[in-house]
Amino acid sequence: MAAVQMFEKAAEAGHLGGTVTILYQFQTYSASYNCLVLQYNVGVYYLSTRGPQQSDVKAVEYFTRAAKRNHADSAVNLAMCYMAGRGVTKDREEATRWLQVAAEQGHERGKQMFQQIQNEQQAASLEQGLGDNKPDAGHKTFDNVKEEPKEEEGKGEEDL
């Protein structure tokens, strides 16, 4: 049974103390044995639970531990925390970095999110590039070119 399901079952039964005890055991076990799945599940618990146990900061801590050891689900959740500013300061670059980690590991959602960010960045770059090349008053464009009046033959020519 996944850690989150155990926490939810204990909470539904009204065993707040049991939930805290189970959480402590999972924290100790996941930290001691570097169990990536447990670290991820503890992170999910801290992020999604309601009440005094909820902690975005602790969720980020557990997701970071697992993501640094190439747990793709943790990398995606960590990226989402950075995007939303949950438990950390909003940081789009850091979020993108973690999505790239997940994408490189073949995580489908991570790939999609990373590709979306790359597309947005490319569009913004193109837009800025066009903005730098907008004509000013000194450049002739189709809109600001005035047709020069034609000179009549024989007039305006200087005699040599």
How would you describe this protein?
65% of the residues lie in helices and 0% in strands. The protein is mainly α. The protein has a single domain (3-130), classed as Tetratricopeptide repeat domain (Serine Threonine Protein Phosphatase 5, Tetratricopeptide repeat, Alpha Horseshoe), CATH 1.25.40. Helix 2 (16-33) packs antiparallel against helix 3 (36-48), helix 3 runs antiparallel to helix 4 and helix 5 runs antiparallel to helix 6 (92-104). The model has no long low-confidence stretch (mean pLDDT 77).
How is this structure best summarized?
The chain is an all-alpha fold and 160 residues long. It contains seven helices and no strands.
Question: What would the keywords be for this entry?
Answer:
Serine Threonine Protein Phosphatase 5, Tetratricopeptide repeat, 160 residues, single chain, mainly alpha, 7 helices
